[in-house]
Design a protein that fits this description.
GO cellular component, one term: chloroplast
Subcellular location: Plastid, Chloroplast
CATH class: Alpha Beta
CATH architecture: 3-Layer(aba) Sandwich
Radius of gyration: 20 Å
Structural class: alpha/beta
CATH superfamily: NAD(P)-binding Rossmann-like Domain
Number of helices: 10
Pfam families: adh_short (PF00106)
Helix content: 25-40%
Bound molecules: nicotinamide-adenine-dinucleotide
Number of strands: 14
Number of domains: 1
Catalytic activity: chlorophyllide a + NADP(+) = protochlorophyllide a + NADPH + H(+)
Function: Phototransformation of protochlorophyllide (Pchlide) to chlorophyllide (Chlide).
Largest sheet: 8 strands, mixed
Strand content: 15-25%
Shape: globular
Length: about 375
């Protein structure tokens, strides 16, 4: 399917899925409304209200491009969940976002207290929650030593996985309460968390094993799973965190989709060479890439294009499937990608879930 601006307008074509309980079983009913600004609901036909979406790490790169794509439809209010309030405000202004279509709430995913505080602050805003996009990430490929979150977890896994895990668990109740036609929790994945074929400095397998390795990696006292040949391996820690993201998305789907109707999905946004994250992948890029970036497009996707992709996964009725991992081909057509064995093992996902619950204090 080609990308179209209209796919970002939730009110234009609303595919509404209702779960109906029938003699102990659960059946999905699907209705499609024709283009209009109303949705069918049990009580009355009413104007589709503005949706509210939270995007983590929305002050740069993919997060900012997605925030812009959703805000400029005028159909979404974007909550930019960021560490630096002023940076987020400046970023929103730099891409021309209208103040009416966004707000900023402080969130530091590397602190579980901050995640809880964010949730409280969001609830105080009185807004419903219709979509949550877990986008923020850190990537430390050149780090020689591990660094740690406020709670003592290795920074990549602690931020990218555990911070988002707690956030998504806490906000699931809010998504459940939303009366929006399509409620979605989207976790941004990465090819490093999905394939075994990447060349270069990304280790081929996430070292989750029976999760003893993961527990070691997450724990301040023993970072052995993140150590490769005696050295901390930041690329490996990132990969482990992304595999955790994929496993978590699927476990959310298994545990809650049927019961709540919320859609859980992940996506690979493409290779976006202009963001902070990608440039840290290959340090030389920081110097060599900027002067040439407007001429180099092959194999890369622009921030704007990838922001539209992610916005599409948040809003497009035809991408409302749960438990899936979206990718795009070179013609910008979306397709459901196959997750690698290590990123789709249900037993590993269950163990990861239980371990993560303990680590964030939810068990
Ligand atoms: N750039 C690529 O080629 C590429 C490829 C595949 C996947 N991704 C994924 O895309 C997502 C966005 O990355 P990007 O490329 O836009 O890079 P980016 O560095 O521009 O964005 C990452 C964002 O996360 C935020 N962040 C980091 N630590 C945080 C914390 N503790 N609390 C709150 N926010 C924090 C940063 O401030 C930044 O805004 C990531 O999940 C990344 O894994 C990127």
């Amino acid at each position: 399917m080609a990308l179209q601006a209209s796919s970002l307008l939730p009110a234009l074509s609303v595919r509404k899925e209702r779960r109906v309980r029938l003699g102990g079983g659960v059946r999905a009913q699907t209705t499609t409304t024709s283009p209009s600004t109303t949705v069918s609901s049990p009580d009355a036909k009413k104007t589709l209200r503005k949706g509210t979406v939270i995007i983590t790490g929305a002050s740069s790169g993919l997060g900012l491009a997605t925030a812009k794509a959703l805000a400029e439809t005028g159909k979404w209010h974007v909550i930019m969940a960021c560490r630096d309030f002023l940076k987020a405000e400046r970023a929103a202004k730099s891409v021309g976002m209208n103040k009416e279509n966004y707000s900023v709430i402080h969130l530091d995913l590397a602190s579980l207290d901050s995640v809880r505080q964010f949730t409280d602050n969001f609830r105080r805003s009185g807004r419903p929650l219709d979509a949550l996009v877990c986008n923020a990430a850190v990537y430390l490929p050149t780090a020689k030593e591990p660094t740690f979150t406020a709670d003592g977890f290795e920074l990549s896994v602690g931020t990218n996985h555990l911070g988002h895990f707690l956030l998504a668990r806490l906000l699931l109740d809010d998504l459940k309460k939303s009366d929006y036609p399509s409620r979605r929790l989207i976790i941004v994945g990465s090819i490093t968390g999905n394939t075994n074929t990447l060349a270069g400095n990304v280790p081929p397998k996430a070292d989750l094993g029976d999760l003893r390795g993961l527990a070691g990696g997450l724990n301040r006292l023993n970072t052995s799973s993140m150590i490769n040949g005696g050295e901390f391996d930041g690329a490996k820690a990132y990969k482990d965190s992304k595999v955790c993201n994929m496993l978590t998305m699927q476990e959310f789907h298994r545990r809650f989709h049927e019961e709540t109707g919320v859609t859980f999905a992940s996506l690979y946004p493409g290779c976006i060479a202009t963001t902070g994250l990608f440039r840290s992948h290959i340090p030389l890029f920081r110097i060599l890439f900027p002067p040439f970036q407007k001429y180099i497009t092959k194999g890369f996707v622009s921030e704007e294009e990838s922001g539209k992709r992610l916005a599409q996964v948040v809003t497009d009725p035809s991408l409302g499937k749960s438990g899936v991992y979206w990718s795009w081909n070179k013609d910008s057509a979306s397709f459901q990608n196959q997750l690698s064995e290590e990123a789709s093992d249900p037993e590993k996902a269950r163990k990861l879930w239980e371990l993560s619950e303990k680590l964030v204090g939810l068990a």
